[in-house]
Write a structure and sequence with these properties.
CATH class of the largest domain in chain A: Alpha Beta
Mean pLDDT of chain A: 87
Protein name (chain B): Coenzyme F420 hydrogenase subunit beta
Number of domains of chain B: 2
Distance between the termini of chain B: 16 Å
Strand content of chain A: 5-15%
Radius of gyration of chain B: 18 Å
Number of domains of chain A: 2
CATH topology of the largest domain in chain A: Rossmann fold
Strand content of chain B: 15-25%
Keywords (chain B): Iron, Iron-sulfur, Metal-binding, Oxidoreductase
Shape of chain A: globular
InterPro entries (chain B): Co_F420_Hydgase/DH_bsu_N, FRHB/FDHB/HCAR-like, FrhB_archaea, FrhB_FdhB_C
Pfam families (chain B): FrhB_FdhB_C, FrhB_FdhB_N
Strand order of the largest sheet of chain B: 3-2-4-5-9-10-1-11
CATH architecture of the largest domain in chain A: 3-Layer(aba) Sandwich
EC number (chain B): 1.12.98.1
CATH superfamily of the largest domain in chain A: NADH:ubiquinone oxidoreductase-like, 20kDa subunit
Number of strands of chain B: 11
Mean pLDDT of chain B: 96
Distance between the termini of chain A: 29 Å
Shape of chain B: globular
Largest interface: A-B, 53 and 55 residues
Number of helices of chain B: 8
Structural class of chain A: alpha/beta
Oligomer: heterodimer
Protein backbone atom coordinates (compact mmCIF):
# COMPACT_ATOMS: atom_id res chain seq x y z
CA UNK A 1 0.00 0.00 0.00
CA UNK A 2 2.82 2.42 0.86
CA UNK A 3 4.39 1.76 -2.49
CA UNK A 4 1.13 2.39 -4.26
CA UNK A 5 0.64 5.71 -2.56
CA UNK A 6 4.24 6.70 -3.15
CA UNK A 7 4.05 5.88 -6.83
CA UNK A 8 0.82 7.75 -7.09
CA UNK A 9 2.18 10.95 -5.72
CA UNK A 10 5.54 10.44 -7.37
CA UNK A 11 7.63 10.96 -4.30
CA UNK A 12 10.33 9.18 -2.50
CA UNK A 13 9.66 9.06 1.22
CA UNK A 14 11.07 12.43 2.03
CA UNK A 15 11.06 12.87 5.79
CA UNK A 16 9.31 15.96 6.83
CA UNK A 17 7.57 17.11 9.94
CA UNK A 18 4.31 18.89 9.76
CA UNK A 19 4.46 20.83 13.03
CA UNK A 20 1.17 21.00 14.84
CA UNK A 21 -1.37 23.16 13.10
CA UNK A 22 1.38 25.09 11.38
CA UNK A 23 1.40 22.30 8.84
CA UNK A 24 -1.18 24.11 6.80
CA UNK A 25 1.25 26.93 6.21
CA UNK A 26 4.09 24.65 5.30
CA UNK A 27 5.62 24.99 1.90
CA UNK A 28 4.85 22.14 -0.38
CA UNK A 29 6.75 21.00 -3.40
CA UNK A 30 4.91 21.08 -6.66
CA UNK A 31 4.16 17.76 -8.24
CA UNK A 32 5.25 16.89 -11.75
CA UNK A 33 1.92 15.38 -12.58
CA UNK A 34 -1.02 16.43 -10.49
CA UNK A 35 -2.84 13.64 -8.71
CA UNK A 36 -6.47 13.35 -9.70
CA UNK A 37 -8.80 13.43 -6.76
CA UNK A 38 -12.51 12.77 -6.55
CA UNK A 39 -15.02 13.44 -3.80
CA UNK A 40 -17.95 11.10 -3.50
CA UNK A 41 -20.83 12.02 -1.26
CA UNK A 42 -22.94 9.09 -0.12
CA UNK A 43 -25.10 9.07 3.00
CA UNK A 44 -23.36 11.64 5.16
CA UNK A 45 -24.30 15.04 6.51
CA UNK A 46 -21.78 17.08 4.46
CA UNK A 47 -19.84 17.86 7.65
CA UNK A 48 -16.69 16.21 6.36
CA UNK A 49 -16.54 18.14 3.10
CA UNK A 50 -17.20 21.32 5.07
CA UNK A 51 -14.19 20.52 7.25
CA UNK A 52 -12.12 19.93 4.15
CA UNK A 53 -13.13 23.22 2.59
CA UNK A 54 -12.40 25.07 5.81
CA UNK A 55 -8.71 24.84 5.01
CA UNK A 56 -8.98 27.96 2.86
CA UNK A 57 -5.34 28.88 3.23
CA UNK A 58 -3.98 25.73 1.68
CA UNK A 59 -6.95 24.90 -0.51
CA UNK A 60 -6.49 27.63 -3.07
CA UNK A 61 -2.89 26.60 -3.60
CA UNK A 62 -3.90 22.97 -3.49
CA UNK A 63 -6.74 23.27 -5.96
CA UNK A 64 -4.87 25.35 -8.47
CA UNK A 65 -1.40 23.90 -8.35
CA UNK A 66 -1.21 20.66 -6.47
CA UNK A 67 -4.11 18.43 -7.39
CA UNK A 68 -6.88 18.14 -9.92
CA UNK A 69 -10.29 17.66 -8.41
CA UNK A 70 -11.82 15.70 -11.24
CA UNK A 71 -15.00 14.43 -9.69
CA UNK A 72 -17.51 15.55 -7.11
CA UNK A 73 -20.79 17.39 -6.90
CA UNK A 74 -19.80 20.02 -4.39
CA UNK A 75 -16.11 20.53 -5.11
CA UNK A 76 -16.09 20.15 -8.90
CA UNK A 77 -19.72 20.16 -10.04
CA UNK A 78 -19.17 16.91 -11.92
CA UNK A 79 -21.66 14.12 -11.58
CA UNK A 80 -21.43 10.87 -13.38
CA UNK A 81 -24.30 9.58 -15.50
CA UNK A 82 -24.71 7.27 -18.44
CA UNK A 83 -23.51 9.84 -20.95
CA UNK A 84 -20.58 11.11 -18.86
CA UNK A 85 -18.42 8.27 -17.57
CA UNK A 86 -16.73 8.65 -14.19
CA UNK A 87 -13.11 9.81 -14.66
CA UNK A 88 -10.12 7.80 -13.51
CA UNK A 89 -8.91 8.97 -10.10
CA UNK A 90 -5.76 8.51 -8.08
CA UNK A 91 -7.59 9.05 -4.83
CA UNK A 92 -11.29 9.05 -4.06
CA UNK A 93 -12.47 10.54 -0.79
CA UNK A 94 -15.80 8.99 0.08
CA UNK A 95 -18.01 10.67 2.64
CA UNK A 96 -21.00 8.89 4.16
CA UNK A 97 -22.06 5.32 4.57
CA UNK A 98 -23.76 3.44 1.75
CA UNK A 99 -27.46 2.66 1.71
CA UNK A 100 -28.19 -0.84 0.53
CA UNK A 101 -31.59 0.24 -0.80
CA UNK A 102 -30.21 3.17 -2.75
CA UNK A 103 -29.38 1.84 -6.16
CA UNK A 104 -27.57 4.96 -7.22
CA UNK A 105 -25.25 4.95 -4.18
CA UNK A 106 -24.37 1.33 -4.72
CA UNK A 107 -23.66 1.89 -8.36
CA UNK A 108 -21.54 4.94 -7.63
CA UNK A 109 -19.54 3.17 -4.93
CA UNK A 110 -18.75 0.16 -7.10
CA UNK A 111 -17.85 2.46 -9.97
CA UNK A 112 -15.57 4.52 -7.74
CA UNK A 113 -13.80 1.39 -6.60
CA UNK A 114 -13.14 0.55 -10.25
CA UNK A 115 -12.04 4.05 -11.23
CA UNK A 116 -9.98 5.06 -8.21
CA UNK A 117 -6.58 3.67 -7.35
CA UNK A 118 -7.13 4.50 -3.71
CA UNK A 119 -10.39 4.69 -1.85
CA UNK A 120 -10.40 6.65 1.39
CA UNK A 121 -13.24 6.33 3.88
CA UNK A 122 -13.51 10.01 4.74
CA UNK A 123 -15.27 10.55 8.05
CA UNK A 124 -16.81 8.11 10.48
CA UNK A 125 -19.96 7.35 8.45
CA UNK A 126 -17.85 5.99 5.62
CA UNK A 127 -15.45 4.25 7.97
CA UNK A 128 -17.80 2.57 10.41
CA UNK A 129 -21.35 3.74 9.73
CA UNK A 130 -21.46 6.22 12.61
CA UNK A 131 -24.83 7.86 13.13
CA UNK A 132 -26.41 6.15 10.12
CA UNK A 133 -26.10 2.89 12.07
CA UNK A 134 -29.25 3.95 13.90
CA UNK A 135 -31.41 4.08 10.78
CA UNK A 136 -34.36 1.70 10.69
CA UNK A 137 -36.16 3.04 7.65
CA UNK A 138 -39.72 4.28 7.55
CA UNK A 139 -38.75 7.93 7.13
CA UNK A 140 -39.45 10.48 4.42
CA UNK A 141 -38.49 11.01 1.67
CA UNK A 142 -37.45 7.39 1.18
CA UNK A 143 -39.20 5.09 3.67
CA UNK A 144 -37.45 2.10 2.22
CA UNK A 145 -33.96 3.46 2.86
CA UNK A 146 -33.19 1.45 5.93
CA UNK A 147 -29.79 -0.24 5.85
CA UNK A 148 -26.69 1.91 5.96
CA UNK A 149 -23.31 0.19 6.08
CA UNK A 150 -19.68 1.29 6.10
CA UNK A 151 -17.90 1.19 2.75
CA UNK A 152 -15.68 -1.67 3.85
CA UNK A 153 -18.74 -3.94 4.08
CA UNK A 154 -18.96 -3.77 0.28
CA UNK A 155 -15.63 -2.71 -1.23
CA UNK A 156 -12.00 -2.69 -0.25
CA UNK A 157 -11.10 0.51 1.58
CA UNK A 158 -7.45 1.55 1.44
CA UNK A 159 -7.31 4.19 4.12
CA UNK A 160 -9.65 5.79 6.63
CA UNK A 161 -9.82 9.20 8.25
CA UNK A 162 -12.35 8.90 11.07
CA UNK A 163 -14.06 11.79 12.81
CA UNK A 164 -17.54 13.22 13.19
CA UNK A 165 -16.77 15.37 11.47
CA UNK A 166 -13.18 14.89 10.43
CA UNK A 167 -11.31 17.94 11.79
CA UNK A 168 -9.98 20.56 9.37
CA UNK A 169 -6.51 20.08 10.88
CA UNK A 170 -6.31 16.38 10.14
CA UNK A 171 -7.28 17.09 6.55
CA UNK A 172 -4.51 19.68 6.30
CA UNK A 173 -1.98 17.40 7.93
CA UNK A 174 -2.92 14.50 5.69
CA UNK A 175 -2.74 16.56 2.52
CA UNK A 176 0.64 17.97 3.47
CA UNK A 177 1.91 14.49 4.33
CA UNK A 178 0.65 13.10 1.03
CA UNK A 179 2.20 15.85 -0.99
CA UNK A 180 5.51 15.56 0.83
CA UNK A 181 5.57 11.80 0.48
CA UNK A 182 5.56 11.47 4.26
CA UNK A 183 4.22 7.94 4.25
CA UNK A 184 4.83 7.25 7.93
CA UNK A 185 2.21 9.78 8.85
CA UNK A 186 -0.41 7.90 6.85
CA UNK A 187 0.38 4.49 8.34
CA UNK A 188 -2.28 4.66 11.09
CA UNK A 189 -4.90 5.64 8.51
CA UNK A 190 -4.07 2.55 6.52
CA UNK A 191 -4.44 0.44 9.64
CA UNK A 192 -7.72 2.12 10.58
CA UNK A 193 -9.21 1.18 7.21
CA UNK A 194 -9.53 -2.37 8.48
CA UNK A 195 -11.66 -1.44 11.49
CA UNK A 196 -15.36 -0.77 11.05
CA UNK A 197 -16.82 -1.46 14.47
CA UNK A 198 -15.55 0.97 17.05
CA UNK A 199 -17.86 3.11 19.14
CA UNK A 200 -18.32 4.14 22.76
CA UNK A 201 -19.34 0.62 23.82
CA UNK A 202 -16.19 -0.80 22.27
CA UNK A 203 -14.04 1.15 24.71
CA UNK A 204 -15.22 -1.18 27.42
CA UNK A 205 -14.53 -4.30 25.36
CA UNK A 206 -11.33 -3.23 23.62
CA UNK A 207 -9.62 -1.10 26.24
CA UNK A 208 -11.05 -1.63 29.73
CA UNK A 209 -11.65 -5.38 29.37
CA UNK A 210 -8.15 -5.73 27.93
CA UNK A 211 -6.46 -4.23 31.01
CA UNK A 212 -5.34 -1.20 29.03
CA UNK A 213 -7.33 1.73 30.43
CA UNK A 214 -5.44 4.19 32.60
CA UNK A 215 -8.25 6.69 33.16
CA UNK A 216 -6.56 9.57 31.33
CA UNK A 217 -9.79 10.97 29.89
CA UNK A 218 -8.63 11.33 26.28
CA UNK A 219 -11.68 9.39 25.02
CA UNK A 220 -14.02 11.78 26.79
CA UNK A 221 -12.13 14.76 25.37
CA UNK A 222 -12.44 13.36 21.83
CA UNK A 223 -16.14 12.53 22.07
CA UNK A 224 -17.95 15.07 19.86
CA UNK A 225 -21.33 14.55 21.54
CA UNK A 226 -20.25 14.42 25.18
CA UNK A 227 -21.60 10.90 25.39
CA UNK A 228 -18.56 9.91 27.41
CA UNK A 229 -17.81 10.88 30.95
CA UNK A 230 -15.26 9.53 33.39
CA UNK A 231 -16.42 7.67 36.46
CA UNK A 232 -13.94 6.23 38.96
CA UNK A 233 -11.27 6.67 36.30
CA UNK A 234 -13.06 4.74 33.59
CA UNK A 235 -15.08 5.90 30.59
CA UNK A 236 -18.83 5.65 30.87
CA UNK A 237 -20.84 5.82 27.67
CA UNK A 238 -24.28 7.36 27.65
CA UNK A 239 -25.73 5.36 24.79
CA UNK A 240 -28.48 7.91 24.26
CA UNK A 241 -25.85 10.42 23.18
CA UNK A 242 -23.34 8.17 21.43
CA UNK A 243 -23.35 8.49 17.62
CA UNK A 244 -20.98 5.55 17.15
CA UNK A 245 -18.32 7.68 15.46
CA UNK A 246 -15.49 5.83 17.18
CA UNK A 247 -13.53 9.02 17.92
CA UNK A 248 -13.01 7.79 21.48
CA UNK A 249 -11.30 4.59 20.41
CA UNK A 250 -9.37 6.32 17.63
CA UNK A 251 -7.95 8.87 20.09
CA UNK A 252 -7.31 6.49 23.01
CA UNK A 253 -3.55 6.28 23.63
CA UNK A 254 -3.98 2.58 24.33
CA UNK A 255 -5.68 1.62 21.02
CA UNK A 256 -2.61 2.48 18.94
CA UNK A 257 0.26 4.76 19.79
CA UNK A 258 2.39 6.72 17.30
CA UNK A 259 5.39 7.27 19.56
CA UNK A 260 7.94 8.10 16.88
CA UNK A 261 5.70 10.63 15.19
CA UNK A 262 4.93 12.34 18.49
CA UNK A 263 8.61 12.67 19.34
CA UNK A 264 9.34 13.99 15.86
CA UNK A 265 6.54 16.55 16.13
CA UNK A 266 7.81 17.68 19.55
CA UNK A 267 11.44 17.72 18.48
CA UNK A 268 12.29 15.22 21.21
CA UNK B 1 17.49 7.27 26.87
CA UNK B 2 16.33 6.34 30.28
CA UNK B 3 14.94 9.77 31.19
CA UNK B 4 13.70 10.59 27.67
CA UNK B 5 15.06 13.52 25.73
CA UNK B 6 15.76 16.50 27.96
CA UNK B 7 17.78 19.67 27.78
CA UNK B 8 18.68 20.17 31.40
CA UNK B 9 18.21 18.46 34.75
CA UNK B 10 18.01 20.81 37.74
CA UNK B 11 16.98 20.62 41.35
CA UNK B 12 14.52 23.39 42.11
CA UNK B 13 11.81 24.77 44.36
CA UNK B 14 9.26 27.55 44.38
CA UNK B 15 10.37 30.58 46.35
CA UNK B 16 6.83 31.61 47.32
CA UNK B 17 6.23 30.54 50.92
CA UNK B 18 2.49 30.18 50.25
CA UNK B 19 3.27 27.56 47.60
CA UNK B 20 5.92 25.82 49.71
CA UNK B 21 3.39 25.40 52.50
CA UNK B 22 0.86 23.48 50.41
CA UNK B 23 2.97 21.82 47.76
CA UNK B 24 4.01 18.19 47.63
CA UNK B 25 7.73 18.82 47.21
CA UNK B 26 9.28 21.82 45.50
CA UNK B 27 5.98 23.26 44.29
CA UNK B 28 7.28 23.39 40.72
CA UNK B 29 3.99 22.55 38.98
CA UNK B 30 2.09 25.16 40.96
CA UNK B 31 4.80 27.77 40.49
CA UNK B 32 5.22 27.19 36.75
CA UNK B 33 1.50 27.16 35.96
CA UNK B 34 0.72 30.24 38.01
CA UNK B 35 3.74 32.05 36.59
CA UNK B 36 2.62 31.12 33.04
CA UNK B 37 -0.84 32.42 33.90
CA UNK B 38 0.48 35.68 35.36
CA UNK B 39 2.71 36.22 32.33
CA UNK B 40 -0.20 35.44 30.00
CA UNK B 41 1.70 32.56 28.44
CA UNK B 42 -1.50 30.62 29.13
CA UNK B 43 -5.03 31.88 29.76
CA UNK B 44 -6.00 29.08 32.10
CA UNK B 45 -4.86 25.71 33.34
CA UNK B 46 -6.53 22.38 33.88
CA UNK B 47 -5.40 21.04 37.25
CA UNK B 48 -6.43 18.28 39.64
CA UNK B 49 -8.58 20.38 41.94
CA UNK B 50 -10.25 19.37 45.18
CA UNK B 51 -13.30 17.09 44.87
CA UNK B 52 -16.17 16.15 47.14
CA UNK B 53 -14.26 13.42 48.92
CA UNK B 54 -10.86 13.62 50.61
CA UNK B 55 -8.01 13.01 48.15
CA UNK B 56 -10.44 12.36 45.30
CA UNK B 57 -9.58 15.10 42.83
CA UNK B 58 -11.81 16.62 40.18
CA UNK B 59 -10.32 18.30 37.12
CA UNK B 60 -10.57 22.06 37.53
CA UNK B 61 -10.22 24.75 34.89
CA UNK B 62 -8.21 27.28 36.89
CA UNK B 63 -8.25 30.89 35.77
CA UNK B 64 -6.37 32.40 38.73
CA UNK B 65 -3.22 31.61 40.69
CA UNK B 66 -5.35 31.02 43.76
CA UNK B 67 -7.24 28.29 41.97
CA UNK B 68 -3.99 26.72 40.84
CA UNK B 69 -2.67 26.81 44.41
CA UNK B 70 -5.91 25.16 45.59
CA UNK B 71 -4.91 22.14 43.51
CA UNK B 72 -1.37 21.86 44.91
CA UNK B 73 -0.19 18.53 46.30
CA UNK B 74 -0.13 15.06 44.81
CA UNK B 75 -3.26 12.93 44.66
CA UNK B 76 -2.61 9.27 44.16
CA UNK B 77 -5.77 8.53 42.20
CA UNK B 78 -7.41 9.49 38.89
CA UNK B 79 -8.07 13.01 37.79
CA UNK B 80 -9.05 12.84 34.11
CA UNK B 81 -7.57 16.25 33.30
CA UNK B 82 -7.47 15.48 29.60
CA UNK B 83 -11.25 15.35 29.57
CA UNK B 84 -11.48 18.83 31.08
CA UNK B 85 -9.20 20.29 28.41
CA UNK B 86 -12.25 20.21 26.19
CA UNK B 87 -14.21 22.31 28.68
CA UNK B 88 -11.32 24.73 28.93
CA UNK B 89 -11.36 25.27 25.17
CA UNK B 90 -15.02 24.95 24.31
CA UNK B 91 -16.82 26.27 27.38
CA UNK B 92 -14.27 28.71 28.77
CA UNK B 93 -13.15 29.70 25.27
CA UNK B 94 -9.47 29.63 26.20
CA UNK B 95 -7.04 29.95 23.31
CA UNK B 96 -3.93 28.93 25.28
CA UNK B 97 -4.42 26.23 27.86
CA UNK B 98 -1.86 24.80 30.24
CA UNK B 99 -2.19 21.59 32.17
CA UNK B 100 -0.44 19.19 34.47
CA UNK B 101 -0.32 15.60 33.30
CA UNK B 102 1.04 12.22 34.24
CA UNK B 103 2.78 10.20 31.52
CA UNK B 104 -0.32 8.37 30.23
CA UNK B 105 -2.28 11.61 30.03
CA UNK B 106 0.57 13.09 28.03
CA UNK B 107 0.38 10.15 25.67
CA UNK B 108 -3.31 10.89 25.08
CA UNK B 109 -2.78 14.62 24.57
CA UNK B 110 0.27 14.24 22.34
CA UNK B 111 -1.39 11.58 20.22
CA UNK B 112 -4.31 13.95 19.73
CA UNK B 113 -1.94 16.76 18.77
CA UNK B 114 -0.18 14.62 16.18
CA UNK B 115 -3.41 13.05 14.90
CA UNK B 116 -6.29 15.44 15.64
CA UNK B 117 -8.86 13.26 13.84
CA UNK B 118 -12.01 14.34 15.59
CA UNK B 119 -10.97 17.17 17.89
CA UNK B 120 -11.79 20.19 15.80
CA UNK B 121 -9.54 23.15 16.78
CA UNK B 122 -8.84 21.74 20.22
CA UNK B 123 -5.40 20.16 20.19
CA UNK B 124 -3.62 23.31 19.03
CA UNK B 125 -4.96 25.26 22.02
CA UNK B 126 -3.05 23.07 24.49
CA UNK B 127 0.09 25.11 24.71
CA UNK B 128 1.87 24.05 27.90
CA UNK B 129 2.07 20.71 29.64
CA UNK B 130 3.94 20.28 32.89
CA UNK B 131 4.54 16.57 33.36
CA UNK B 132 4.91 14.80 36.68
CA UNK B 133 6.93 11.68 37.40
CA UNK B 134 4.67 8.72 37.94
CA UNK B 135 5.30 5.10 38.83
CA UNK B 136 1.66 3.99 39.00
CA UNK B 137 -1.80 5.21 39.88
CA UNK B 138 -4.36 3.79 42.29
CA UNK B 139 -8.14 3.43 42.02
CA UNK B 140 -9.76 5.38 44.86
CA UNK B 141 -11.00 2.14 46.42
CA UNK B 142 -7.42 0.89 46.56
CA UNK B 143 -6.33 3.94 48.54
CA UNK B 144 -9.28 3.47 50.90
CA UNK B 145 -8.42 -0.17 51.35
CA UNK B 146 -4.77 0.04 52.22
CA UNK B 147 -5.11 3.19 54.26
CA UNK B 148 -7.89 1.69 56.38
CA UNK B 149 -6.85 -1.97 56.45
CA UNK B 150 -3.08 -1.80 56.41
CA UNK B 151 -2.43 1.57 58.03
CA UNK B 152 -5.49 1.49 60.33
CA UNK B 153 -6.27 5.07 59.41
CA UNK B 154 -8.77 6.76 57.10
CA UNK B 155 -8.73 9.15 54.17
CA UNK B 156 -10.73 11.69 56.15
CA UNK B 157 -8.04 11.84 58.85
CA UNK B 158 -5.27 12.10 56.28
CA UNK B 159 -3.75 15.50 55.63
CA UNK B 160 -0.99 14.56 53.23
CA UNK B 161 0.09 11.50 51.30
CA UNK B 162 3.57 10.89 50.06
CA UNK B 163 5.77 8.24 48.57
CA UNK B 164 9.44 8.33 49.41
CA UNK B 165 12.32 6.23 50.68
CA UNK B 166 10.46 3.06 49.67
CA UNK B 167 7.50 3.94 51.86
CA UNK B 168 3.91 5.06 51.43
CA UNK B 169 3.41 7.74 54.03
CA UNK B 170 0.31 9.52 55.32
CA UNK B 171 0.32 12.43 57.69
CA UNK B 172 -2.58 12.99 60.07
CA UNK B 173 -3.05 15.84 62.50
CA UNK B 174 -0.86 14.24 65.13
CA UNK B 175 0.84 11.32 63.51
CA UNK B 176 2.90 10.13 60.63
CA UNK B 177 2.00 6.65 59.41
CA UNK B 178 3.82 4.57 56.88
CA UNK B 179 3.86 1.18 55.24
CA UNK B 180 6.53 -0.25 52.97
CA UNK B 181 5.70 0.71 49.38
CA UNK B 182 5.78 -2.99 48.58
CA UNK B 183 2.58 -3.38 50.59
CA UNK B 184 0.74 -1.23 48.05
CA UNK B 185 1.78 -3.44 45.16
CA UNK B 186 -1.16 -5.22 43.65
CA UNK B 187 -3.41 -2.24 44.39
CA UNK B 188 -2.35 -0.15 41.38
CA UNK B 189 -4.51 -0.18 38.25
CA UNK B 190 -3.59 -2.85 35.72
CA UNK B 191 -3.15 -0.40 32.84
CA UNK B 192 -0.08 1.06 34.59
CA UNK B 193 1.76 -2.23 34.38
CA UNK B 194 2.60 -1.83 30.68
CA UNK B 195 3.58 1.85 30.89
CA UNK B 196 7.27 2.51 30.29
CA UNK B 197 7.27 6.21 31.02
CA UNK B 198 8.31 7.27 34.51
CA UNK B 199 9.54 10.79 33.90
CA UNK B 200 6.76 12.22 31.66
CA UNK B 201 8.98 12.07 28.60
CA UNK B 202 6.47 13.82 26.33
CA UNK B 203 5.96 16.90 28.50
CA UNK B 204 7.30 20.40 27.91
CA UNK B 205 8.94 20.26 31.31
CA UNK B 206 8.64 17.49 33.86
CA UNK B 207 9.16 17.34 37.59
CA UNK B 208 8.98 15.11 40.65
CA UNK B 209 10.60 14.60 44.00
CA UNK B 210 12.95 11.76 43.10
CA UNK B 211 16.59 12.76 42.95
CA UNK B 212 16.27 15.92 45.03
CA UNK B 213 16.33 16.55 48.78
CA UNK B 214 13.14 17.03 50.84
CA UNK B 215 11.27 20.16 49.86
CA UNK B 216 12.94 20.28 46.47
CA UNK B 217 12.02 18.79 43.11
CA UNK B 218 13.98 17.46 40.19
CA UNK B 219 13.14 19.27 36.96
CA UNK B 220 13.80 18.05 33.43
CA UNK B 221 13.32 20.68 30.73
CA UNK B 222 12.39 19.07 27.42
CA UNK B 223 10.83 21.21 24.70
CA UNK B 224 11.77 24.79 23.83
CA UNK B 225 8.49 25.93 25.36
CA UNK B 226 9.26 24.15 28.62
CA UNK B 227 12.87 25.27 28.78
CA UNK B 228 12.11 28.92 28.13
CA UNK B 229 9.25 29.01 30.63
CA UNK B 230 11.46 27.45 33.28
CA UNK B 231 14.37 29.81 32.72
CA UNK B 232 12.03 32.82 32.73
CA UNK B 233 10.56 31.65 36.03
CA UNK B 234 14.05 31.28 37.48
CA UNK B 235 15.09 34.71 36.24
CA UNK B 236 11.94 36.21 37.70
CA UNK B 237 12.85 34.70 41.06
CA UNK B 238 9.72 32.53 41.17
CA UNK B 239 11.89 29.42 41.29
CA UNK B 240 15.30 28.87 42.88
CA UNK B 241 17.65 26.17 41.67
CA UNK B 242 20.59 24.00 42.64
CA UNK B 243 22.78 21.96 40.37
CA UNK B 244 21.79 18.31 40.23
CA UNK B 245 25.43 17.44 40.87
CA UNK B 246 25.30 19.11 44.27
CA UNK B 247 22.21 17.39 45.61
CA UNK B 248 21.57 14.00 47.12
CA UNK B 249 20.42 11.43 46.10
CA UNK B 250 20.90 12.90 42.61
CA UNK B 251 20.01 11.89 39.09
CA UNK B 252 21.26 8.34 39.58
CA UNK B 253 18.23 7.40 41.66
CA UNK B 254 15.86 8.85 39.07
CA UNK B 255 17.58 6.82 36.37
CA UNK B 256 17.39 3.71 38.48
CA UNK B 257 13.64 4.06 39.07
CA UNK B 258 12.99 4.95 35.45
CA UNK B 259 14.89 1.87 34.34
CA UNK B 260 13.00 -0.33 36.73
CA UNK B 261 9.64 0.93 35.44
CA UNK B 262 10.77 0.25 31.88
CA UNK B 263 12.01 -3.24 32.55
CA UNK B 264 9.00 -4.37 34.56
CA UNK B 265 6.72 -2.98 31.82
CA UNK B 266 8.71 -4.94 29.24
CA UNK B 267 8.17 -8.10 31.25
CA UNK B 268 4.44 -7.49 31.55
CA UNK B 269 4.19 -6.67 27.83
CA UNK B 270 5.86 -9.95 26.89
CA UNK B 271 3.52 -11.79 29.20
CA UNK B 272 0.44 -10.17 27.68
CA UNK B 273 1.60 -10.69 24.11
CA UNK B 274 2.14 -14.37 24.91
CA UNK B 275 -1.44 -14.52 26.13
CA UNK B 276 -2.60 -13.01 22.85
CA UNK B 277 -3.67 -9.71 24.42
CA UNK B 278 -3.30 -6.40 22.59
CA UNK B 279 -0.53 -4.01 23.69
CA UNK B 280 -0.07 -0.68 21.92
CA UNK B 281 3.60 -0.19 22.83
Amino acid sequence: MFERIKRLFRFGAKPNNPKNDESSKQEVEIVAEKPKIGYIHLSGCTGDVMSLSENYDILSELLTNMVDIVYGQTLADVWWDDENPMPEMDLALVEGSVCLQDEHSLKELYEVRKRAKLVCAFGSCAKNGCFTRFSRGGQQAQPKHESFVPLSDLVQVDLAIPGCPVSPEIVAKTVVALINGDMDYLAPMLDLAGCSTNCGCDLQASVVNKALCIGCGTCAMACPTRALSMNEGRPECNKNRCVKCGSCYTHCPRSWFPEDRIKQDLGL
Amino acid sequence: MVLGTYKEAISARATDKAIQKVSQDGGIVTALLSYALDEKIIEGAVVAGPGDKAFKPEPLVALTSDEIISAAGTKYTFSPNVWALKNAVRQYGLEKVGTVAIPCQLQGIRKTQSYPFATRFLADKISLIVGIFCMENFPYASLETFISEKMKSSLDLTEKMDIGMGKFITTTQDDELSIPLKETHGYEQAGCNICKDYTAELSDVSTGSVGSPNGWSTVLTRTDTGASLFSQAVEAGIIETKSMDDVKPGLGLLEKLSNSKKSSADKEITKRVDMGLPVPF
